[in-house]
Amino acid sequence: MRKFILLFQCQDQKGIVARISDFIFKHGGNIVTADQYSTDPEGGYFFMRVEFILNKEQQNKDSLSEEFSPIAREFSGQWKIIDKSQTLRMGIFVSEDGHCLLDLLYLYMSGELDVKIPFVLSNSEKPRKLLTQHNIPFHYIPANKENRREAELLSYALDSTDFLVLARYMLVLSPEFLLKYNKDIINIHHGFLPAFKGADPYGKAIKQGVKIIGATAHFVNDQLDEGPIISQEVEYVSHKDNRQALIRKGRNLEKKALADAILSYVDYRIIKHENKTIVF
Amino acid sequence: MRKFILLFQCQDQKGIVARISDFIFKHGGNIVTADQYSTDPEGGYFFMRVEFILNKEQQNKDSLSEEFSPIAREFSGQWKIIDKSQTLRMGIFVSEDGHCLLDLLYLYMSGELDVKIPFVLSNSEKPRKLLTQHNIPFHYIPANKENRREAELLSYALDSTDFLVLARYMLVLSPEFLLKYNKDIINIHHGFLPAFKGADPYGKAIKQGVKIIGATAHFVNDQLDEGPIISQEVEYVSHKDNRQALIRKGRNLEKKALADAILSYVDYRIIKHENKTIVF
Amino acid sequence: MRKFILLFQCQDQKGIVARISDFIFKHGGNIVTADQYSTDPEGGYFFMRVEFILNKEQQNKDSLSEEFSPIAREFSGQWKIIDKSQTLRMGIFVSEDGHCLLDLLYLYMSGELDVKIPFVLSNSEKPRKLLTQHNIPFHYIPANKENRREAELLSYALDSTDFLVLARYMLVLSPEFLLKYNKDIINIHHGFLPAFKGADPYGKAIKQGVKIIGATAHFVNDQLDEGPIISQEVEYVSHKDNRQALIRKGRNLEKKALADAILSYVDYRIIKHENKTIVF
Amino acid sequence: MRKFILLFQCQDQKGIVARISDFIFKHGGNIVTADQYSTDPEGGYFFMRVEFILNKEQQNKDSLSEEFSPIAREFSGQWKIIDKSQTLRMGIFVSEDGHCLLDLLYLYMSGELDVKIPFVLSNSEKPRKLLTQHNIPFHYIPANKENRREAELLSYALDSTDFLVLARYMLVLSPEFLLKYNKDIINIHHGFLPAFKGADPYGKAIKQGVKIIGATAHFVNDQLDEGPIISQEVEYVSHKDNRQALIRKGRNLEKKALADAILSYVDYRIIKHENKTIVF
Predict the structure, then answer these.
(1) Interval D78-116: pLDDT, tens
(2) Which residue of C has its CA nearest to B250?
(3) B59 has a chain A CB within 8 A of its CB
(4) Per the CB < 8 Å rule, is B112 touching C244?
(5) Nearest to D211 among B195, B229, B239 (CB)
(6) Cα separation, D174 vs B101, whole angstroms
(7) Contact at 8 Å (CB) between C280 and C269?
């Protein structure tokens, strides 16, 4: 019994769901969940995610893909079939603050975050001790604003990971790095984007006197803190909350927004579209 | 161009989505949204809601129903096809506090709540003035705990409404009334069910010293405040909040929970199952 | 038995609370609530709000003020004594969307919002009907972006009000108007400031793909949407929420943020400081 | 420069704040924060918490207490002066699930949770590895429902701790244990009290079909899950959330509610009153 996910998108038109669900039925599949969304039923763009179970041993991702290919062509669709038994490899970059890392490790340890973690990489020695109970390599690379040492970062990340998580990594990755890595990178920003982009969002929040603070998990693109937003969390603050209080409150927001984003990601529930996300 | 909704439920099995979406496709329909849920992909119970557009004038609910009937039988399913152009008739019962009524009237006036309102009925004269700008009949029936005057209530509601909303109606409807009315009734309870059932939930919340209060919209059944929950809202409170503060905070929760529940209901997005609700 | 509020601020120093509470005690007063805040116990700025009851008939705001004056001088403080029996006069400006107006009227009618409302003024005829059950004058002034008719606005507002509320008034008031009016103006912005300033915040929120929307009540100053923030509210949204859904969700946020701000304001619980607010 | 906290409560009456603040002023103290609350300005009960700084070296808790004693007698008040430099000793009991423990350890490590932790005690071996990076003794006591081994628990806790935290300790402590320990115990319950007391609150939440789940930090008394509530947290759930999803969402709520409660507790901001709490 094997579980697959089919992601599909195309110009909205009649009969898509019928064709796709018929395809799954004819292969003896049982749909576990199906989600779909159209930006507009008249002339919009259509997105679908179907999770289904097959119990014929002989079927695999490749044979399914081959057989689905003509259907996709019919609708001029973009698509992907994923074999859920293949676990994604998630590299983690982190700086000094280990709260997000710790939260992800807990989910990993409990089996809820079903990934492989080839390494945790930091420009600080501090997070090393958070890994003592885990069998995960820790790489210390003393990168800083003057020398980001991106070649080294890339040498660790490029082949060993399917995606990267910046779990409070405080250096901006260059457009060159993004281009060379060329896979998804999820960042947690400790502010409510699009407000308070860039450095020191808590300082900006205090200066502005906002009554609610936030955190934002988003895909990284070549514009700082402007990639597609995946999830956001917020909490009330008051004039009494100083920077330390904001940091403490913010940590809970960051942990939750990042964990939610990653859990959605590894379950292939996120689709990027026009610098936004559809999160099924 | 006409919009229809198909609601379907049956024992989970292979091919349901394929058959249903094929049925819609073959009738020239375009699926606007489709939601489905299975309590368990292995041996669970399956629920589906599909909203689709047909542009053939000759098709109507009855012809569609006749043609869908054999498919439903195949899966031993329960089902209903709804013609979205037929507007539901929503009767409103209210006592003294008019905030939920006012909120519903605003949604009604703005066109977002697409219902007919045959009447507002109250055991107080106070809400009458909230209706002056609307063309909705107001009936004052001086019901109270000693004399609930349910025959009169029923005479207004039975034939003229498709469902009832208790928008802070402070008298319990008897099992006899429910049996005779025999259609859906949605109530707003000013407490976080299942905590604080029955009278004076704010008094109970104060006595208990809770730090969060809530409101709950639910279907009425013959157990007081025990019908299937549709939506809930909550807000933080502190030791400083007295009864008046709780009432004020609670009003916002009640308005939101009730409006959300009704908007879902009139869009046929709520399915009752085992004294719970699936809200698509 | 009369209720007074003392607002006090000065450079933080020893003995302030002792002197102030001693002053109240010596006048036979009983402190109902006292709040204080210092930006920093070492060299910061100190704020205090004390609400107290006096039962000597002969005492009034003026005699109290005269006697308190030397104490304030001692600490080089800014201060104000308010007689709670004097009700503030709140003018309301509104455009087409009446949800905030309706919410304020409900609070007013229920006695919870203790103000006088000398008028509701609108650049649309639509809100007129919301006032039919109230005895509040409605002024229609067909102002628009080309002709803001601020002289007329001012002629209504200047002498008859103690503060103004922009309950979704969609024209920006000019710096000249603000200068001439020279009293507090509270605005509700249908976005989570400082994100999405200016026009069409919901359009901007959709374009940005945020997962949470907000509303912000703030004092108006001569920078658009940059005055001190008083209260904010937020709610989750998803890719499925179109503009209409955002507007509907936003209305609840706007109503709540604005009502909270005004209730704090008329209770003298807001202190402006460095383009921020302390809300006791 | 030393920091003290004065907690005071008595029948509400005139002049309390004046006397107390005068006392602090006369001792050369600077008030950092002062909070007060009266259940009713007429005939209610009054509570006060003042945090102040003294810079005279010779003053200590005992001399201050001796001098304050006559003032307290005057008002027939209950009171306590706390020297903030004396760190509380917090014992932790935990069962298998280590998420709350890990969260507390992070706060402890970062210096924000200013306590001593004499031990972590568990009826499972699982949490041991969470302590490897800390210098905190771990005691494994294989207690279970049949044999709670409370004598052993008590032997660890009685003299070495000032209060206990049940960070998801799944055995109920007997009234005898509570009587013998006779200090504060803070528990985290993974449900929204007073709903879902006792075992398996998530199972109950699913069965009930609630749309919001919660967690509650409260003081332990001899009634199961009925001690004074300190803090609560909530999150939306839907029909799609199975038990595993509820557990995952619940963990964030539990961590936050418990951490908030403990941070308030060690800062002496919680006052118990009539089986409720005032949290300044």
Answers:
(1) 999 999 999 999 999 999 999 999 999 999 999 999 999
(2) C256
(3) no
(4) yes
(5) B229
(6) 50
(7) yes
Cα(D246)–Cα(D196) distance, integer angstroms? 14
Pairwise CB contact (< 8 Å): C18 & D22: yes
Query: Which value, in Å, is the radius of gyration of the alpha carbons in chain A?
Result: 21
User: Are the beta carbons of D244 and A112 separated by less than 8 Å?
Assistant: yes
Question: Number of Cβ pairs closer than 8 Å across C and D?
Answer: 62
| Cα–Cα dist B268/B163, whole Å | 12
Q: Do C132 and B132 touch (CB under 8 A)?
A: yes
Can you tell me which residue has the tokens 């920003």?
A189
Spell out where D55-110 has E strands.
Answer: 78-83, 88-94
Q: Is A278 helix (H, G, I), strand (E, B) or coil?
A: strand
Share of chain A above pLDDT 70, in %: 100
Smallest Cα–Cα separation from D65: which of D19, D6, D16? D6
* pLDDT tens figures, A189-237: 999 999 999 999 999 999 999 999 999 999 999 888 899 999 999 999 9
Of C195, C229, C239, which has the smallest distance from its Cβ to A278's Cβ?
Answer: C239
| Highest CATH level, class, for C90-279 | alpha beta
Q: Which residue of C has its CA nearest to D47?
A: C33
User: D252: which chain A residues are within 8 Å (Cβ-Cβ)?
Assistant: 252, 255-256
Is the peptide bond between A194 and the residue preceding it cis, with omega within 30 degrees of 0?
Answer: yes
Task: Spot the catalytic one: C225, C241, C260, C267.
Answer: C225
A 4-43 residues with CB below 8 A of B? Answer: 12-19, 21-22, 24-25, 28-34, 36-38, 41
* Domain edges within chain A: 2-83, 90-279
pLDDT digits (tens, 9 = 90+) for C70-125: 999 999 999 999 999 999 999 999 999 999 999 999 999 999 999 999 999 999 99
User: What separation in angstroms does the CA of B121 have from each of B131, B156, B266?
Assistant: 11, 9, 20
pLDDT, one tens digit per residue, over A135-159 is 999 999 999 999 999 999 999 999 9
The ipTM (two decimal places) reads 0.93
CB within 8 Å: D130 and A133 = yes
- Written out in words, the top-level CATH class of the domain with range C2-83 is alpha beta
The whole-angstrom separation of Cα C246 and Cα C242 is 6
**What pLDDT digit, counting tens, does each position of A18-28 carry?**
999 999 999 99
D210 touches chain B (CB under 8 A): yes
C248: chain B residues, CB-CB within 8 Å? 107, 112
Distances from the Cα of A220 to the Cα of A173, A184, A226, D195, angstroms? 9, 7, 7, 42
- The 10s digit of each residue's pLDDT in C216-233 is 999 999 888 899 999 999
Separation of alpha carbons A242 and C30, rounded Å = 32
